[in-house]
Amino acid sequence: MGGFRLSRRISGGELLVRCLLEEGVKYVFGVPGAQLLTILDAIKRIGEPRGLKFVTCRHEQAAANMADAWARVTGEPGVCIGTVGPGGANLIPGVYPAWADGVPMIVLTAQNQTWRSYPDHGSMQALDQYHLFKPITKWNVVVSHWDRIPELMQHAFRVATSGRPGPVHLDLPSDVLYERKDEGAVRVYPPYRY
To answer: Taking the chain, what is the end-to-end CA distance rounded to the nearest angstrom?
Structure first.
């Protein structure tokens, strides 16, 4: 055969999971939802063999409480995830105590396609999660491009653990999570020890 290598295309969800693995995350707490499937698939395929587990919770508040407890016990940021609209909103009661007590937490929410969610069109499943989380997070961002996932994830961990620790929030539109690009298009860098 020829001397060329076929490149592999990966989803934004897989890219995000690679970032979590680089940060040494062991658990992601959450409730499955359609917009999260690309992340959950990547956790199963590439995360579990490397020690990253998804813990299915009965309610998103419990997921945030578990991430909070993980961070308080280990000193490592807890990671929780919620799906669009009510799923993201249900994380709030569990994120607020982490904000009040200075506990490092990475809060990930799935979102509908970018064009359906920002600006807000008033749909229950296209909730403006950015403004919902803004008052109770140290840093908050809508991830609008696939290739920014590694940079924004690394920044999220840095902010969550620096100075007075606290929760950070990344809102992930489904068009970004499901977009597929060449795995060589961006690099996932090892974390700085913040």
So the answer is: 46
Domains and CATH numbers, the chain: 9-178 (3.40.50.970)
How many Å apart are CA 142 and CA 131, to the nearest integer?
A: 10
Amino acid in the structure at residue 115: W
Quick one: tokens of 134? 């803004």
3-state SS string over the chain? CCCCCCCCEEEHHHHHHHHHHHCCCCEEEECCCHHHHHHHHHHHHHHHHHCCEEEECCCHHHHHHHHHHHHHHHCCCEEEEECCCHHHHCCHHHHHHHHHHCCCEEEEEEECCHHHHCCCCCCHHHCCHHHHHHHHCCEEEECCCHHHHHHHHHHHHHHHHCCCCCEEEEEEEHHHHHCEEEHHHCCCCCCCCC
The string of pLDDT tens digits covering residues 70-106 is 999 999 999 999 999 899 999 999 999 999 999 999 9
Q: What is the pTM of this model?
A: 0.91
Q: What is the CB neighbour count within 10 angstroms for residue 181? A: 15
Q: Nearest-CA neighbor of 66 among 123, 16, 107, 110?
A: 107
